[in-house]
Amino acid sequence: MRAPLIVIEGLDRTGKSTQTAKLCHRLNGFLVKFPNRETPIGKLLNQYLTDASNPMPLEVAHLLFSANRWEMVKNIEDLLSKGTPVVMDRYVYSGVAYSMAKGLDIEWCLAPDKGLPKPDVTIFLKANDLDSISQREGFGEERYEVASLQTSVRNNFEILRSRYDEWKVIIIDGKDIDQVHEHIWELVCPLTRGVTTGLNRF
Ligand code: 2DT
Ligand code: MG
């Protein structure tokens, strides 16, 4: 028996931080946010994301995002095997969806993440109304927070959703924080008794 690995994905400003924190608290789990900006690689990524004049090639950025996940694997596997649920705020799918939006090929994007633990459930917070997202506080502060890129990222998330069967979608338009949380809880609840199968891998 091991604890579940739960991923919450979505575009910028769809409430992932709020929802992952709330879920983690209820589960008594461990929260992992990607990119993790605290590690040496994460610091490079933070510079890249916050400074639009940073000339890093997009392939390099992609590989650093992936490396930033690999840095955490041992830690995550230990937690799961000891019975602590792990909740992730973004993961492999953000890596692929954002890099594809910048023109990279899907298989190329997935390759460096091959072997990473696969989530037991991936919950996609989907906003049908993208205009309301770009009006949320703080939107536009970072490199990828541009409406045209968000539209492309959303299409890429749809491609990934049809490819991976652990995906669940929650439409967030018109729902408040607690309503979205309860919906997430319904999806996660069956996993809280523990998971009997081993971890799958990408
Ligand atoms: P936050 O706004 O959630 O801090 O993300 N991103 C993220 C990628 O391009 N590749 C990745 O592998 C990951 C995890 C999405 C900052 C931005 O980083 C993007 C938005
Ligand atoms: Mg962001």
Number of strands: 5
Low-confidence stretches: none
Report the sheet-strand fraction: 5-15%
Strand order across the biggest sheet? Answer: 2-3-1-4-5
Each distinct ligand = 3'-deoxythymidine-5'-monophosphate, magnesium ion
Number of helices: 9
Description:
- One of its GO terms (biological process) is dTTP biosynthetic process.
- One of its GO terms (cellular component) is cytosol.
- With about 200 residues, the protein is α/β, with parallel strands linked by helices.
- The protein has one domain: 3-Layer(aba) Sandwich (Rossmann fold).
- It is built from nine helices and five strands, in the order E-H-E-H-H-H-E-H-H-E-H-H-E-H.
- The chain has helices spanning about 15-25, 40-50, 60-70, 75-80, 90-100, 105-110, 130-135, 145-165, 175-190; strands at about 5-10, 30-35, 85-90, 120-125, 165-170.
- It has a five-stranded parallel beta sheet, sandwiched between helices.
- The longest helix has 17 residues, at about 145-165.
- The two termini are about 20 Å apart.
- The structure holds 3'-deoxythymidine-5'-monophosphate and magnesium ion (MG).
- Magnesium ion binds near residues 12 and 142.
